Amino acid sequence: MSDPQSSADPLLRVRDLRIEVPGGAEAVRGVSFDVAPGEAVGLVGESGSGKTLTCRAVLGVLAPGCAVTGGSIEFDGRELTGLSHKEWEAVRGTGIGAVFQDPASYLNPSLTIGGQLAEVLRVKRGLGRRAARERALELLTSMELRDPARVYGQYPHELSGGMLQRVMIAIAVSCAPRLLIADEATTALDVTVQAEVLELLNRLRGEHRLSVVLVSHDLAVIAETCDRVAVLYRGEIVETGPTAEVLAAPRHAYTRELLREAREFSPAGAAA
Ligand SMILES: Nc1ncnc2c1ncn2[C@@H]1O[C@H](COP(=O)(O)OP(=O)(O)OP(=O)(O)O)[C@@H](O)[C@H]1O
Ligand SMILES: [Mg+2]
Fold this sequence. Notes:
Elements: E1 12-20, E2 26-35, E3 40-44, H1 51-59, E4 67-75, E5 78-79, H2 85-94, E6 96-99, H3 113-125, H4 129-142, H5 148-152, H6 161-173, E7 179-183, H7 191-208, E8 211-215, H8 219-225, E9 228-233, E10 236-242, H9 243-248, H10 253-265
Parallel strand pairs: 3-8, 3-9, 6-7, 7-8
Antiparallel strand pairs: 1-2, 1-4, 4-5, 9-10
């Protein structure tokens, strides 16, 4: 599609990505986009258009029966498709972090928040017990949780959705990734908390020159956060470009439709 490139040396370079789902249907059909260092790229599109499959492919965590059948995913110049399970683990641990819509399902209900975060730091960063504990508390503090020391000792079920998402972001950035994938990470949160979590993401992005791939149904969220946007429709990118340009003058009928729906949903026209 038109101009998927953003720079000569992108951090993430996806080319002609094809993904099949169980039953053999091709749900992602030749998706290409780049993410430059420090850049935030939004993926939008109707339900079922292939946003999550694309994210999961980049993370190497496609569901059983789903498979990359073509194309390339290059991260920092390295081809990721075809990596072994172990090699993927290493890339996920230190190169690419992820935050999803349902943080609770990624946390162990029977371990404290601090315990889980410290464990990640021990395993992935090789910190000793004490250093891991200290770093975990530091991370929770930098997530702007009101009482980080208390949260450290709490269990997932004791936290609100917004707090859990901050914990997930802490886990995602604990290994100093260069790319963060946020798939509907704020969708389940109420508007105020959503704005706070987005602000946190933006701050982390600035502080660590983190690249971001942000999936959202909410064009206002995309407009606020993303430098560029790619619009998916039935497994293909139908439009891509600087967010302000695409939202101000959408070329594709489907993008215009998305914008129209967004305005109807939010009469203030926040996305426009
Ligand atoms: N594990 C799976 N088994 C079968 N089909 C799947 C699977 N995962 C995804 N699909 C199909 O692939 C298509 C794209 O799915 P995907 O989850 O990427 O959509 P999405 O754009 O993230 O949608 P949403 O906005 O609802 O999250 C859909 O038609 C979906 O039904
Ligand atoms: Mg999805």
